[in-house]
Amino acid sequence: MRVSWPELLEAIGSCEKCGLCERRTHVVPGEGDPHARLMFIGEGPGQEEDRQGRPFVGPSGELLTRMIHAIGMERSEVYICNIVKCRPPMNRNPMPEEAAACLGYLRAQFALVRPQVVVLLGKVACQYTVKDQVFITRDHGRWYQQKGVWFMPTYHPSALLRDPAKKREAWEDFQKIKQKLNELAGAGEGER
């Protein structure tokens, strides 16, 4: 089923498919370029995201923004969203039924954006998007191709804040992302 951006945002904003809606301050649908070549998917909004209604605006969001800048892009040039659109209590991982309630919204976002490259930020994002079982510490920086789109798992920025030793590996992953975007643009796949 195809929907427009206004229809999708209305559906997300009024969603009551799971219990996460009961405690939310704001729904956090996603933001950025609606036709971005590069899409980031995280697990779910945190406290600051719930307060502002925007994805990745807390400390981990500040780090993600710096990482995007490091590959020569602006946050406004990418699309950023999460598996679930409402904050799980105490920032816990989304339960399977909560993720299942939101996956239709994520699929609709993906269909509207039509990215060439998708970066999966952390285990939860991988769990609900890439068919293979992914372990971030083992598989970060590895490319998966599904239906002509390139997917890469990497560390969630909050994991990098907890363990700064992993920042070097994440930096290398982001260099691969930049390289892949350049390759796709050079192959004429950058045109829309």
Structure explained in plain terms:
With 192 residues, the protein is of the alpha/beta class. It has a single domain, classed as Uracil-DNA Glycosylase, subunit E. Helices cover 42% and strands 13% of the residues. Strands 1-3-2-4-6-5 form a 6-stranded mixed sheet, with helices on both faces. The longest helix is centred in the last third of the chain and has 20 residues.
What is the gist of this entry?
With 192 residues, the chain is of the alpha/beta class.
Mean pLDDT across every amino acid position: 95
**Total strand count, please?**
6
CATH topology: Uracil-DNA Glycosylase, subunit E
| Count, helices | 8
Strand content: 5-15%
CATH class: Alpha Beta
Radius of gyration: 16 Å
Describe the strand arrangement of the main beta sheet, using strand numbers: 1-3-2-4-6-5
Helix/sheet category: alpha/beta
Give the name of the CATH superfamily.
Uracil-DNA glycosylase-like domain
Tally of structural domains: 1
N-to-C CA distance: 22 Å
Shape: globular
pLDDT under 50 segments (min length 5)? none
Helix coverage percent of residues? 40-55%
The largest β sheet comes out as: 6 strands, mixed
Order of helices and strands: HEEHHEHEHHEEHH
Q: Per CATH, which architecture?
A: 3-Layer(aba) Sandwich
Give the SSE layout.
Blueprint: H1 5-13, E1 31-32, E2 38-42, H2 47-52, H3 59-70, E3 79-82, H4 96-113, E4 117-121, H5 123-127, H6 136-139, E5 144-146, E6 149-154, H7 157-162, H8 167-186
Parallel strand pairs: 2-3, 2-4, 4-6
Antiparallel strand pairs: 1-3, 5-6
Helix pairs in contact: 1-4
